[in-house]
Structure formats: structure tokens, C-alpha cells
Amino acid sequence: MPTITTKDGVEIFYKDWGSGQPIVFSHGWPLSSDDWDAQMMYFVTRGYRVIAHDRRGHGRSAQVADGHDMDHYADDLAALTAHLDLKKAIHVGHSTGGGEVVHYIARHGESRVAKAAILSAVPPLMVQTAANPGGLPKSVFDDFQAQLAAGRSAFYRDIAAGPFYGYNRPGVKPSEAVIQNWWRQGMMGGAKAHYDGIVAFSQTDFTEDLKKINVPVLVMHGDDDQIVPYADSAPLSAKLLKNGILKTYKGFPHGMPTTHAETINADLLAFFKE
């Protein structure tokens, strides 16, 4: 399996398919690069080189105890892009991966980056603070950690079968295959990485990162997102970006790259070609 080793000795698994302009995908918590199957298959057949890695502690990457924070996530992504010597790359991040992409570009610069897209993404800041009154109370994320520690198998099953894909909404037919695939990806990773990752995705403030970015960024979000609520995320991120484009999807859930892949893929392609 292709891997790189980071400067702090962590083995990171990645996929690298095809040729052409590179698209680099950053996945959400607590998943793996497999969550991008619908996008990678679509774009590799349309002349792009598609690359996705498993975040440290997730998927097939090393289950290390430490470094589960946005600085390390961004540095690991930078190590991968440097190892592959990517030029004019398009970065696409979903959920926590959207935060990773934003922090990577702000922290490591734009010399290798052409554009970015963040989908159902956590920036600018998820947790409620005095400066972010519309955020979710810290107790929500404390409860996530408590449930994970008490039994993550059942916890992950409940997330996938409920709010992540909007399967708890009236009239929505759950896909057992999609639920099981989410659970499978989650259980491949390390409990410690996932536990710490809850703090990373909920308490990192990306406000200053967003302001630093010059490349065009497509901000895509469903207005029925039950994981990263719409009002306190996408519109605020788009406003902070110098070159942000907001695209709102009526009724789409958090996991829209899977449930509405056809729509999302077509809109990403149009943005890449602009």
C-alpha cells in the first residue's frame, strides 16, 4: 500500500489514481479516503488525477496516540503534496476535511494550490463562544466524546443511521449499505484519534485562516445539515474568504457527497472548469 512517513514518524496511507490536474480529497471524521469513492471514480474517468489519504489515526494510516489536531492534519497534508510534488492542485474537503483544507492553505501557502472546495465543512468555528453565539454548546461535543468512549460501535451506527445522511427525516429511505460502509470506515480507525478529533473539529477557530486565502473557494452546504448546522458555517465562511462562492442545497444532509453524488460531482466539475 502506498504510504508516506511524516516528520514525526507517522505512516499515512494514500491513493493516487490517474493523470492530469490533481484533485486532493480530505475526508470527514471519523472516516477514511474510502468516503470519496463516488467522487474519485467520477473525476478519474474525466481526465483528472485523484488523490486521497487516510488522516493520521484513521483508516489504514498509523493509529498513533498523538497529533490529532488541525496543525498536524494540515502538516500531514502538506507532506503528502510535497512528496507527490503536486502543482496547481485542487483541494476538496468534507466536514473536518474542509477545516483541514482551509488550515493547510493558510498555514502552508498557495504555491501548489489552484482552487479549493469545502463541503458541509466545519469552518469558521463549530463551538459556541462569546464571539460565536450561533455555535453549538461545548456540552454537545463533550457528549460525543462520552458516547465514543462508552461504546463507539453503537455510537457510530446511530450517527450513520440517523443524522449524518438525514435518514432520520420523514420519508427518507435509509440505505443499509451506506450505513454499514460508514460504520466500517469508522471502526477501521483508532478510538484515541477519533476522541481527540472531536476537539479538533469543534474547537478550532478557522476565522483567520479563511481571511488569508486568495484562491477561489467553492463553499457547498446543505441547509438540512444536522451535523454542521448551515447558518453558523457556510455563509460565514463564504463571507470571510476573499474569493468565496456559496452554493446552498435545499434539504441536503451532511453526507451529501454520498447521498447526492450526481449533483455534487456535476457542480464540482463546473467549478473546476471555470
TrEMBL record:
One of its GO terms (molecular function) is hydrolase activity. SUPFAM superfamilies: alpha/beta-Hydrolases (SSF53474). InterPro entries: AB_hydrolase, AB_hydrolase_1, AB_hydrolase_fold. Residues 22-254 form the AB hydrolase-1 domain. Keywords: Hydrolase. PANTHER family: HYDROLASE, ALPHA/BETA FOLD FAMILY PROTEIN, NON-HEME CHLOROPEROXIDASE. Belongs to the AB hydrolase superfamily. Bacterial non-heme haloperoxidase / perhydrolase family. This is Alpha/beta fold hydrolase.
